[in-house]
Structure prediction request, 262 residues.
Amino acid sequence: MSVLEVKDLRCSFKVQAQRVFGKQRKDVLDGISYTIHQRETVGILGESGSGKSTIARCITGLLHPDGGSIVFRGLNIFPDTGNRKSIRRKIQMLFQNHTASLNPRMSVKQSLLEALNSQDVSSNKKVDLEKIQDVLDATNLSYDILQRYPRQLSGGQRQRVALARSLLARPELLILDEPTSALDILTQVQILHLVKKLQDERGFAILYITHDVASALEICDRIIVLYRGKIVEDQETSRLLSKPRHPYTKDLLIASGLPEPA
Ligand code: ADP
Ligand code: MG
Prediction:
């Protein structure tokens, strides 16, 4: 069963027109269609400004597309028919800027409790603490971190806390929007491996948005390449490596230091 089905998604922004007075619109997404299946890791590759984050913001409802449709587990979330609220927590997003996803005035414990309390299920303190222990274990964080505030954490720890928070919602789709670009290489690799391990255990699908070809090749089952507002490639990772269809994909592979495909 598909987790996410995006059809003919279109999105444009008003921009100040050059030379002429007034505004004109710039197409950022120009008819994007793709499907993500259960347990699948799908990468979206494209250069900066190619519209990757715009796709994520349309899926999470932060942005209204101009047209097309987005279906999550058979339920329309755009155009919205009142389903968004019920599935909101099932789509979780880890942001590029991990400082943005944690409230600086909340301790880690408060932050995790808040994530739990925003769920509709009623629970008690003991169950809450068990759930929090579970996600701390899952993200390799020790319990003493609960009393700390975001400024007292390293970048990697902050990203783990953000991940722990999203796990509390038991997501079916985790969107990673260049989640690790603010971290050093070793920490980046550790976080990505952790997310993949958690996917194995918990079975969510991943949409991995990045401009980093090497990491996409490593963790994705399938890769979509975005170029000038359109999808120019949507292939299994191994096929994309051996038989890229679009010249832009070849350029991306070569620019990342990979040998030119035959
Ligand atoms: P990426 O994540 O691939 O770097 P984005 O999706 O953030 O790209 O942006 C795609 C394009 O849309 C860029 O040219 C960006 O300047 C433009 N854009 C994004 N958000 C807005 C906005 N709110 N208003 C105007 N233009 C925007
Ligand atoms: Mg972006």
